[in-house]
Design goal:
The protein is about 15% helix and about 30% strand. It is α/β, with parallel strands linked by helices and about 210 residues long. Strand 10 and strand 11 form a beta hairpin.
Length: about 210
């Protein structure tokens, strides 16, 4: 396949505040400092063991009943996906990215929230975004990745090196925060399963 026919997708999930759901984790309740450290490490794509993720998440407010959650969302500072998304992801090359089971409960910590869920540990990082050829990227800040993705990014505003089309099917970029990148094969499988609605997907330009 020539470079011009390759497709890479960028997901805007990390820019979507409506995907931040009001939960608190058993991990944070037991060891808040360690939990915050795990959240920070996951945000930059560091592979982490299962014990750095919560086994249970509880609705944060007693007067709010938590409904079935989206196919991808943030709960208590951790990114999570539905069992349906996890099933698709497992069919692809994840490298050091992991899926760890977690259970969601209402505020009473007893009543389950509808659905089955997995915490998503982003464990793969590449440097594939071509900043000089890209739009919808905001300029530098002092900590972590030096640039970040504009939440209003459109199709073909992000340019990627052709190397980005090889290897694992989901990754973060070392120099761009708030962005998750996916291979076309993975996106097509998610689309076939009707699971992409909340991913906020945009096509990238693949350059040499």
């Amino acid at each position: 396949m020539s470079d011009k026919n390759k497709v890479i997708w960028v997901s805007r999930v990390m820019c979507d505040s409506t995907l931040i759901k009001s939960f608190e984790s058993n991990y944070a309740l037991e060891d808040a400092n360690s939990a915050v450290d795990a959240m920070r490490r996951n945000k930059v794509g560091e592979p982490l063991p299962v014990d750095r993720f919560p086994t249970e998440l509880y609705g944060a407010y007693p007067d709010k009943r938590m409904k079935r959650q989206p196919d991808i969302f943030m709960a208590g500072g951790y990114w999570a996906v539905s069992a349906e998304v996890a099933t698709v992801l497992r069919q692809f090359s994840l490298g050091r990215t992991s899926l760890y089971p977690t259970r969601l409960f209402q505020h009473d910590r007893k009543t389950p929230v509808e659905g089955e869920y997995f915490c998503l540990n982003f464990g793969e990082v590449k440097t594939t975004v071509l900043r000089e050829k890209s739009h919808a990227i905001e300029g530098s800040y002092t900590g972590g990745a030096p640039y970040w993705l504009d939440g209003d990014v459109k199709d073909n505003q992000i340019a990627m090196s052709s190397a980005g089309a090889a290897g694992v099917d989901i990754w973060l970029d070392s120099e761009i925060r708030n962005a998750v990148f996916l291979s076309d094969a993975l996106v097509q499988a998610l689309k076939a399963a009707k699971l992409t609605r909340r991913f906020g997907l945009r096509k990238c330009v693949v350059a040499a």
